[in-house]
Amino acid sequence: MNAPVLSRRLFLASSTAVGGGLLLSFDIEGEAQAAGPATLSAYLKVSPDGKATIASKIPEVGQGMRTALPMIIAEELDVAWEDVIVEQALADTKVYGRQVAGGSMATTLEWDGMRRVGAAGRWMLIQAAAAKLNVPAAELTTEPGRVVHVASGRKLAYGDLAQAAAAIAPPDPKTLALKDPKAFRIIGKSHVQTDTDAIVTGKPLFGIDVRLPGMVYATFVKAPTYAAKVASADLAAAKAVKGVRDAFVVDGGTALDGLLPGVAVVADSWWAARRGRNALDVAWADHPTSTQSTASLAAKAAEFAKTGAQRAARADGDVAAALKGAAKVVSAAYDYPFIAHAPLEPQNCTARVKDGKVEIWAPTQNPEPGRALVAKTLNVPPENVTIHLVRCGGGFGRRLINDYMVEAAFIASKVDAPVQLIWTREDDIQHDFYRPGGWHNFTAGLDAKGDLVAWRDHFVSFGEGETFVRSGGMNSTQFPAGAVPNYLHEVSVMPLGIPTGPLRAPGNNAFGFVIQSFTDEVALAAKTDPVEFRRKLLGEPRLIGPEGQNDSFHTGRMRGVLDLVAEKSGWGRKLPKGRGLGVACHFSHLGYVAVVMEVSVAKGQVKVEKAWVAADVGRQIINPTGADHQVQGSILDAIGSTLHQKITFENGAAVESNFGDFPLLRMSQAPPIEVHYLLSDNRPTGLGEPVLPPAPAALCNAIFAATGKRIRSLPVGDQLA
Amino acid sequence: MAYTLTVNGSPHTVDTEPSTPLLWVLRDLLNLVGTKYGCGVAQCGACTVHLDGAPVRACVTPVSRVGSKAVTTIEGVAANPVGAKVQQAWKSLDVPQCGYCQAGQIMSATALLTATPKPTDSQIDEAMDGNLCRCATYPRIRKAIKSASGQAEA
Ligand code: FES
Ligand code: FES
């Protein structure tokens, strides 16, 4: 149904590993990458003791790729999972290709390539066995860790073949036979995450746990109004604090994702640095964006809603005429706030700068742009920057941007010791790259039969001209685009001096809320059951959009998950007063997801009683324990943000600063979640993001069912009081 | 000031300000980095350790207040049979996602099960509500606590 987006060639090279054994390096060339040809590769080492060391190329943020990708290689190599040692690859795009924990793309992009990596290793071990046993390779097969000659019953352990296999010319990966999925022993079965043991015993794993000889600690204070310069700071007072080694002003630049102005304090311990910071008494220069506030942005958005859009991004048919001729017209305005990522591990990075070489230990989701930023800021060639990928205590998109990396590297370049920079939680909440807020002014028209004939969304966001701020744009392919004859997507933007960026299912995390909530309003106006209305809207199974394009939408796949979630949740059943069921479905990151939530509302308080999820991410769930984590985590993430989270701005600066005013969901608020996968005949795709977008609307639609109150502005907060 | 602390059964002497939080004594002075910094203001629970078996937030516990109380961190909790059982349940149910909050979760759960061997759901909520998990692994934390206490998940 979906053609692969990437067509790839694999180039294999083999050599003898240090200490003997087979070492494979696989270069996979991506031909369809927009930025020109990227070379992707992975490493595999089989040692004489039979252990397979598999490099995990993608940064680990809790999304489980450090387990899932090695599982794929191990499957095709045919080794027992117990014999696999996972190693984190260095950040090196030239060797490993795309190394990004983002966009839910690792499964999509790596599935085929990782299988071929494993299959190539198996093929070479078989060739080595054929030579040793003096039989044709075709007579050989494998069982985990061994090559088997079935006719004679002879078996050779991989470890004993590794040395000889290393001398064999690697195969053309295209010619490799891959396993029949029915024969999978590892893929599709739950495997405890690679680092679980180390996590539960408190082993050092995270960026903040890095320890280097002679290392010192730093804190970096920046202006509450983004990019404002330092007017004055009492450096002497900070230096007088016991344990403080140095305090200095950093001039910084104006790019919000680069090195900003601020004051660094370096000390023997982080607490001493923190105490030094308290003594600084920094005064900040005036900044033009200090007049921005949540209220001023909302006022501007209201003005756009009144005066009309700046431009049309997509216009199918004639919405104005269709609305004029409609039997019923429904209008509603929706909005959602800026929100922060707040991964539990605050931003941090460790850096050593010596003799023009920079070595970095970074919890980052996206190392290469960090390398470029560090190289440019420190004026060193990029090849002089080494980046070690350390486990991230959560990412959610925050660590796709490497501001903390350049800060650590810059501070380390001024100090004669390795430096660990740790942000305070307040730094983290107030200097995020926020999910931008947005406004949607909807109008829909229904004909006499109750069919949707017109849909208009005037989206108000941030940017200049036709350019949006980071993660502030909206694609014009959001369903019901293509399913309604008259469709108008309009856009207005205003300038913004607040950093924004991708948050789990960027864009979609908000579009799912507004579109699926408004769809419920339209269903109500059509006097049609919300599930039934969506079924009608989806219509015949078909692909909307060109074959093989990532945002092309298959109505049949969505219908599948919608039907499944309706069935599993007992949609349509009678509920006591104060309870309600809500449904929503949304497509993003190649995944089709439908969610039903059951809520109860009492005394203005919402309690989510249960959630049901049906997801279609293709034919294979690689590691079910990890997959369930992503699904349940996404639902709970959405419940937390929908009910309680917002970042507000005054004087150009964030008001909220810690978990007291930016609350995360708690144990007592987490409902049970039932997860169902609809395995369809499509390539496996990612699961870290697509489950989130439908959840806020499912929740708010359930609130409506329970109370009759339509939530059109997030968070829900005390709107039900 | 010099302070002698008993951490995971062994004495350690550190020289620091009286107000230095136990969290930073553990992390920066004793190199016990399993205890995590999440908020610094007793709002997330990532820094939870035991003082004489009771859960406390190390980020707001000045070293001067520790006195002769025994400090137990995630690195030493396995010495407590309940702690070992909790860790085992966490492992078999594959509780962590990113894992950053889990040391604190395990310390709170161990304290709960030591005081209340068979907690009800609402006792679990009460004991664990101060431990935030940004990845929201709550369903598995609940399951693991039940499993470690020998109760089947309802
Ligand atoms: S770091 Fe102590 S409670 Fe958050
Ligand atoms: S597992 Fe990530 S914060 Fe709990």
UniProtKB/TrEMBL annotation, chain A:
Residues 201-288 form the Aldehyde oxidase/xanthine dehydrogenase a/b hammerhead domain. InterPro entries: Ald_Oxase/Xan_DH_a/b, AldOxase/xan_DH_MoCoBD1, AldOxase/xan_DH_MoCoBD2, AldOxase/xan_DH_Mopterin-bd_sf, N-heterocyclic_Hydroxylase, OxRdtase_Mopterin-bd_su_IorB, TAT_signal. It holds the Pfam family MoCoBD_1. Gene3D superfamilies: Aldehyde oxidase/xanthine dehydrogenase, a/b hammerhead, Aldehyde oxidase/xanthine dehydrogenase, molybdopterin binding domain. SMART domains: Ald_Xan_dh_C. GO terms for molecular function: oxidoreductase activity. This is Xanthine dehydrogenase family protein molybdopterin-binding subunit. It comes from Caulobacter sp. 602-2.
TrEMBL record, chain B:
This is (2Fe-2S)-binding protein. PANTHER family: BLR6218 PROTEIN (PTHR44379:SF2), OXIDOREDUCTASE WITH IRON-SULFUR SUBUNIT (PTHR44379). InterPro entries: 2Fe-2S-bd, 2Fe-2S-bd_dom_sf, 2Fe-2S_ferredoxin-like_sf, 2Fe-2S_ferredoxin-type, 2Fe2S_fd_BS, Beta-grasp_dom_sf, Diverse_Oxidoreductases. It comes from Caulobacter sp. 602-2. Pfam families: Fer2, Fer2_2. Keywords: 2Fe-2S, Iron, Iron-sulfur, Metal-binding, Oxidoreductase. One of its GO terms (molecular function) is oxidoreductase activity. Residues 1-77 form the 2Fe-2S ferredoxin-type domain. It comes from the Bacteria.
